[in-house]
Structure to design on (465 residues):
């Protein structure tokens, strides 16, 4: 090792005042030194709520992907999925930090991630769904990343410069995620009769959650120049999905959207049963030992 | 006390530029293009860096190392700032950085896509990309995985010398 390499690692083991919170990301504020003021004319509370929605999508979906670790069919796929989950976790950290700064109530990313209850999470239901098999994993990642990429492509021009910067960075990552998932959907769909059947069945199982992605919501409506209208990205997402499905010799499922509960869904804090178990796994240690450091 | 015209600022720039990346330790933060600015503000030294990927865990260690080296060199108050915009691109890796990557057996990235509008889909499984083998120099290479051991790398293999190698992803 050269001296430079050694120093990079040596700094990790030094005694400093800079303790790390044991269970969270608490390493640094991911928006350290960034001008986090809310632009004039923008509703700060709505901006906070909006960043929370987008951050929750990434946080919860990242956790679902992490649950696949050690279960992937090959080492390369394991590595790929770990990378996708890490990118989304990074996006979640920045968005939750932005949400906390915009709402101005002193909540930081870790408090938002670990100390909110089910009904306070604003992620879409697609993010929390548990994959039954590898085909569902590939199909769900394709739909999620195609949708998020289209949305963030618009958000790169958001009137909030912090959100715009987070979106522009995320677009580079989401393009990789979408390609990875698309290639697997094609490989399975255009593969053997068995893999084709499983991929088609997986799409049928996931599709009831697609409609929610394009559903208008009051938070987005309150932020005309800041937020991206989900209905406005439908055509772009559909075009991507149709291209992939055609190459994969798969049919677009003809199934009814999942019924909303009294008109409410994930964006309103109404979640599926599976979500409680996910959240328990994500939060229980942090809640058992709040503010522990190492 | 550091001021704009202070010769100390040039020294600070030199020191900051020597900080290695923990995941690509053969490269400095200057080689990688993530060191954006070293400036004096109200007598304090402010170093600005940018993340390569949203979840890159190396950023914290880099910030730590910057503070450590600069304060050891006598720059008392050092502030490390994160800049998100414009987003880092692998195009910012310097010629020197590319040479060091190649020497370490890692292929440097090809030019990143720079077109406005929706990102086009890539549906082919194996890309015969513009990537040459860092070991034997052959252009007959194939991607084996779009993701590698760190967020910034993909896996390739050379069809000529049969060796696997990593490439820094083009973003």
């Amino acid at each position: 090792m050269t001296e430079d390499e050694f120093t990079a690692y040596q700094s990790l083991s030094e005694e400093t005042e800079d303790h790390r919170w044991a269970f969270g990301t608490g390493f640094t504020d991911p928006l350290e030194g960034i001008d986090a003021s809310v632009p004039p004319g923008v509703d700060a509370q709505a901006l906070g709520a909006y960043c929370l929605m987008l951050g929750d999508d990434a946080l919860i979906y990242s956790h679902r992907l992490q649950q696949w670790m050690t279960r992937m069919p090959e080492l390369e796929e394991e590595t790929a999925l770990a990378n996708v989950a890490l990118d989304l976790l990074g996006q979640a950290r920045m968005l939750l930090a932005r949400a906390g700064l915009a709402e101005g109530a002193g909540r930081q990313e870790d408090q938002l991630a670990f100390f909110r209850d089910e009904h306070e999470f604003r992620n879409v239901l697609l993010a929390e769904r548990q994959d039954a098999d590898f085909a569902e994993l590939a199909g769900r990642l394709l739909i999620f990343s195609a949708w998020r990429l289209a949305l963030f492509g618009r958000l790169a021009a958001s009137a909030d410069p912090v959100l715009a910067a987070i979106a522009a960075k995320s677009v580079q990552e989401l393009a990789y995620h979408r390609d990875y998932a698309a290639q697997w959907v094609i490989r399975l769909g255009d593969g053997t009769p068995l893999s084709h059947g499983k991929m088609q069945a997986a799409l049928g199982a996931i599709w009831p959650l697609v409609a929610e992605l394009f559903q208008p919501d009051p938070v987005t409506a309150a932020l005309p120049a800041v937020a991206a209208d989900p209905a406005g990205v439908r055509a772009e997402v559909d075009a991507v999905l149709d291209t992939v499905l055609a190459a994969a010799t798969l049919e677009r499922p003809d199934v009814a959207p999942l019924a909303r509960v009294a008109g409410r869904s994930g964006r309103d804090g109404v979640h599926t049963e599976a979500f409680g178990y996910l959240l328990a796994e994500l939060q229980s240690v942090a809640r058992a030992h709040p503010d522990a450091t190492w | 006390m550091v001021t704009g015209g202070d010769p100390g600022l040039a020294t600070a720039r030199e020191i900051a530029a020597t900080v290695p990346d923990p995941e690509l330790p053969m490269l400095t933060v200057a080689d990688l293009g993530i060191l954006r600015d070293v400036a004096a503000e109200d007598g304090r030294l402010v170093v600005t860096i940018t993340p390569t990927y949203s979840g890159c865990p190396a950023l914290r260690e880099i910030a730590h190392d910057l503070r450590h080296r600069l304060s050891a060199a006598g720059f008392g108050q050092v502030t490390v700032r994160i800049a998100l915009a414009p987003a880092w691109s692998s195009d910012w890796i310097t010629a020197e950085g590319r040479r060091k990557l190649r020497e370490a057996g890692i292929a440097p990235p090809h030019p990143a896509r720079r077109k406005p509008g929706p990102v086009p889909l890539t549906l082919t499984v194996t890309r015969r990309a513009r990537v040459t083998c860092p070991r034997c120099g052959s252009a007959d290479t194939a991607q084996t995985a779009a993701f590698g051991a760190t967020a910034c790398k993909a896996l390739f293999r050379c069809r000529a010398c049969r060796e696997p190698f990593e490439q820094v992803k083009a973003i």
